[in-house]
Amino acid sequence: MRRWRAAAGLLFFCLASTARAQLIPAGTPVPHTALPPVVFINGYQFEGCPATFTGTFGIADQVLQANGEASLFFDTCSLASTASIEDLAAAFSTFLSGLKYTDGAPVQQVDVVAHSMGGLVLRCYLSGKQNSAGMFQPPAAIHIRKAVFLATPHFGTPIASLLPITKQVQEMSSGSAFLFGLATWNDATDDLRGVDAIAAAGNGGTGLLTSTAGFDDGVVPLTSAALRFYGPGRTRVLPYCHVSGGGLVSAFGLCPASAKGIADIDSASHESAQIIVSFFNGTNAWQSVGTAAENDPFLSVDGGLILGAVNFDDSSLNIDSALADAPGSSKMLGISPDGLAFTDLLPAGSLTLHATSPAMPHGSFILEGELTLPAGGTEAYTVTSGPHVIRVLPAAASVFPLSLAPRMLIAMYGSDLADQTAQATGGTLPTQLLTTQVLVNGSAIPLYYVSPTQVNALLPDSVSGLTQLTIQDGIGKYALTLHVDAAAPAIFTQDSSGTGPAAALDAHETLVTASNPLHPGDAVELYATGLGLTQPQNGLDYAVQQPTVTVEGLNCPVSFAGAAPGFIGLDQINCTIPAGATANASAPVVVTSGDRVSNTVTLAIQ
């Protein structure tokens, strides 16, 4: 009897634990936990609304509760089926702003798990994408710490192209203008505002979707679900289908009836659950779950492509045919109803792109471009008959996220940025002597170097937020948008690599090198760009937002940070090598301003 009562008590405890709400109901205060609360966003409900948390994510909330995390649910069924993904993103923003802890304090930061279309909702929120084409209003504070994308169709799904039954489905169609805009909103790409992110892509489909077994999850191809556009090493391939088998995906032969869904977490051992728990806990265990994209038989050698086109005057053009030429092979691209071209399973490497636009009075308009296609995901690219900017970076180094700052020296990289006769360098170049001009929000800015593949310039001190940059020369013009923060420090290096020995002087104004190292207690001058606005003080221009410096992870006390006297756009930071610094020929150095972190450079310390 005593044994029976003990067993009954254990059963009651288990039942009570199961019955206790694992998921925080909408509108209910969130308990304080060691880790941020986790918001789950579900995808499009092909089988109809309403939806439930368990219908997409299984017992993921229970798994996270055991890990000490609170779970919340943003349901994409909360808006009518006529809503766009942009509308859902606006609703998600309202959802986040309404979250409060049990003590009444607002929830300032969350982690996110997004399945399928839910990932596009998150990306729309981060970019501030609006329903009007080309309009973005990125939120100043994003409130997202980490994000896990599960089978998100970042570059569309063929199923949506076949069944464009709602606005949301149309936006998820392969080659849609929505996807291209989202992929190019900031500096011709999407950096997710620097949110720490990873993706899980499934390969458990039958291959009926893409005619290639092992290349899809029954709904989304691997190249579409991958986060290659964000960075390498961020995508894991798992042996799952888009959803668990037995429903429509099995009825149409896209996944086996016995298939497991990539988001349908049934235990802590589910591979998606392992990835989520590890990533949010800050461990590297997720890097051993599934297969790295770099080792996948398709993603290791192939890529996808979504192609847009603009005329020499930067006006948009519809594409009616497109061909990708690679050494020894060529492939015709599909054309979407939005006039963009797209394809998957292109061999990575050098491509020559040929696109034609609908016939004009003088015949079809032909555009060409050269692209080095990376393996592991899908690339968004624009072909144009005029100049083409691939990326705009701080002149000192590439930094992540892709942010610039007022007063920053920038470098534009691309093709046909100037006529060969217009090449020049040194000082501020008289615009009347050049055919190349760079405009920021419609106003010309000073140029310091001009060539067909690179133009260096100075951003004005009046820019902030989303900013339009236009380059124009004797061939035509090309525009793109850039995100400008209060500061975005980038340190100059001696070899211009952005990662080597810093361009730094010691107290004797001598270059710091391995043969002229620093010592603990020595003063050092670092040279950078991107400290942002300055204010005069004692005859110097100090950065309004003062940075910090670390050497070997130790604080390097800053005595001055601001504009380098006598040099436009160049910043100078003086600090003292900490007493605890150890002898190191390549001691790592980092500058931080606000929430923006510089490239890592080195100093020789003895």
Helix content range: 10-25%
The CATH topology of the largest domain: Rossmann fold
Query: How many strands, what sense, and barrel or not for the largest sheet?
Result: 7 strands, mixed
Q: Which of globular, elongated, flat, extended, rod-shaped describes the shape?
A: globular
- The CATH homologous superfamily of the largest domain is termed Alpha/Beta hydrolase fold, catalytic domain
Q: What Rg do the Cα atoms give?
A: 26 Å
Instruction: State which percent range the strand residues make up.
Output: 25-35%
Side-by-side strand order of the widest sheet: 2-1-3-4-5-6-7
Q: How many domains is the backbone divided into?
A: 4
Low-confidence stretches: 1-21
Mean pLDDT: 93
CATH A-level architecture of the largest domain: 3-Layer(aba) Sandwich
Please report the total strand number as a whole number.
38
Number of helices: 11
Q: N- to C-terminal separation?
A: 75 Å
Overall CATH class of the largest domain: Alpha Beta
The helix-and-strand class reads: alpha+beta
In short:
By secondary structure, the chain is of the alpha+beta class. 15% of the residues lie in helices and 33% in strands. The chain contains eleven helices and 38 strands.
Describe the structure.
With 606 residues, this protein is of the alpha+beta class. The chain folds into four domains: 2-295, Rossmann fold (3-Layer(aba) Sandwich); 302-384, Immunoglobulin-like (Sandwich); 391-484, Immunoglobulins (Immunoglobulin-like, Sandwich); 490-605, Sandwich (Immunoglobulin-like). Helix content is 15%, strand content 33%. The chain contains eleven helices and 38 strands. A seven-stranded mixed beta sheet has the order 2-1-3-4-5-6-7, sandwiched between helices. Strands 8, 9, 12, 13 and 16 form a five-stranded mixed beta sheet that branches. The radius of gyration is 26 Å and the shape is globular. The N and C termini lie far apart (75 Å).
